[in-house]
Write a structure and sequence with these properties.
Strand 1 and strand 2 form a beta hairpin. This protein has 17 helices and eight strands. By secondary structure, the protein is of the alpha+beta class.
């Protein structure tokens, strides 16, 4: 009996090996090439799990700009280089527009919201979001005034440190958060208010914990049974949702459909309509997920980019001086406004280079094929997760001649005029690109110029400035302190 058990176990192992070896041939004929996966675990041993984009770039040198990778049972396709990514997200947009369902984000939002929803629900939520953001000032003077006021508040906060070292994480996060809070809730929080501190802390922690979501994507059946960061992520989401639900309850009681004060009011007013679309899509779950998506998108990328900007100005004081000289020539002591940007090519180039060098979302948000597609000679089945690797574009030496360096001249011509570069795609491409791109650009210019107009940023005495990104799902600066020396 024992011998039979052993023989059966051996046969099981041989069967797994056979299936693993022949899987691509049987089901994925002409699938993009990639490293041979091991049984059960796939290519997990080959991947830098904390910074997988680094592995993907190395693999592209062997397998080309379109290749596959397998984590556990999950097969993914990675797209590298500007031409390939643009071809997929622009020329084949409809086929690459989906979001994966086997993802920790979608499991926590249940196909609600805008970031990880699909189909008609996504279209309705995106249409509502874009139109409502415009209604409440995105790209207009009203939101510009809010940003300039908040920038002045941040300047005053920095002044309280009197040139002494401090960590700018919470202050910058709170300032940027107040912009999206004003649109969503029509409120503003003091930087020491426990509510705003708790909200940004929850977002920061989840961003850090999301650093290795591949395990969850690949072994979803195991997740409820094993300890890990995902349990804390879900706990944070529940706490965040609890705050939002209490806010919604308050606003529902105060709602005047003829005097909508913010995005949440606009959504609640939609719920009261008797139209089929309102009944079908404007649910509580969609509202929770949508506001969460906008909170995260409205805070994380902009605040992280600003923190990179200040760190880089400390690292390269000669560049900081050039920016300050241009600010003095064009703006002087007046309040910065968006219209100044056209007269400030060097500052504009520096901000673009901060975004490029910072490489905030190197792996992009994952896409998924909505149908079978033959793309550049390869067959990619419906439902395949696709990673358009933004890092492979922003750090491509064919597009940016000093790609590994901080070099504002990437965005300047020989006469010092601002020079556009089509490979500058930090917000991604296509209809799944960042919905808040216009707002983010406005915030970056106004916050950055206001801070450099009022301070010179220096490293604390004896501190070494490390430009290596910290751990997390995005590329954020490592924990550091700054000195804001008042002018």
């Amino acid at each position: 009996m024992e011998l039979i058990t052993i023989l059966l176990s051996v046969l099981d192992i041989l069967f797994v090996l056979f299936v693993s070896k022949n899987w691509n041939k049987v089901i994925y004929e002409n699938f993009p090439p990639g490293p041979r996966p091991l049984p059960i675990i796939g290519n997990i041993l080959k991947i830098n799990m904390s910074k997988p984009y680094k592995t993907f770039v190395e693999l592209s040198k062997t397998y080309g700009t379109i290749f596959s990778i397998q984590i556990g049972s999950l097969k993914m396709v990675v797209l590298c280089g500007y031409d390939t990514i643009k071809d997929a997200l622009i020329n084949h947009e409809e086929k690459f527009m989906g979001r994966p369902k086997t993802n920790i984000f979608s499991d926590s939002t249940l196909n609600h919201g805008i970031a990880f929803s699909n189909g008609e629900n996504w279209k309705v939520m995106r249409r509502f979001t874009l139109s409502t953001l415009r209604d409440f000032g995105m790209g207009k003077k009203t939101i510009e005034n809010r940003i300039t006021e908040e920038a002045e508040s941040l300047v005053q906060k920095f002044r309280t440190y009197k040139g002494k070292p401090f960590n700018n994480l919470r202050n910058v996060n709170s300032a940027v958060a107040n912009i999206i809070v004003s649109i969503l809730l029509n409120e503003r929080y003091d930087y020491e208010d426990p509510t705003i501190l708790k909200l940004v802390d929850l977002i920061n922690e989840n961003t850090r914990l999301f650093g290795s979501p591949l395990l969850y994507k690949s072994f979803p059946l195991l997740i409820p049974c094993i300890p890990g960061a995902h349990h804390k992520i879900f706990a944070n989401i529940r706490e965040f949702n609890s705050f939002l639900e209490s806010t919604f309850t308050k606003q529902r009681k105060e709602l005047d459909v003829n005097d909508q004060r913010n995005l949440i009011d606009a959504y609640l007013a939609k719920q009261k309509e008797e139209k089929q679309e309102s009944i079908q899509y404007y649910s509580k779950g969609n509202l929770l997920a949508l506001v969460t998506d906008l909170f995260i998108a409205g805070i994380e990328s902009t605040s992280t980019t600003l923190r990179w900007g200040l760190l880089l100005m400390m690292k390269y004081p000669e560049i900081q001086k050039k920016v300050q000289k241009e600010i003095e020539q064009v703006i002087g002591s007046a309040q910065p406004h968006v219209e100044h940007r056209k007269q400030m090519p060097y500052t504009d180039a520096v901000i673009h280079e901060i975004q490029r060098f910072g490489d905030i979302v190197p792996s992009n948000l994952p896409h998924v094929t909505s149908e079978d597609v033959t793309f550049r000679g390869y067959f990619i089945p419906e439902g395949t997760i696709v990673i358009p690797l933004l890092h492979s574009v922003l750090k491509d030496k064919a597009c940016f001649k000093k790609a590994d360096e901080f070099y504002p001249e990437h965005f300047l011509d020989s006469n010092g005029n601002f020079l556009k570069n089509e490979a500058f795609i930090p917000f991604s491409l296509g209809k799944r690109s960042c919905a808040g791109e216009t707002l983010a650009k406005m915030e970056l210019f106004l916050f950055f110029t206001s801070l450099l107009q009022n301070f010179t940023f220096q490293a604390p005495p004896g501190a070494k400035l490390d430009l290596t990104p910290g751990q997390g799902s995005n590329n954020a600066p490592q924990t550091h302190e700054i000195c804001a020396i008042p002018h």
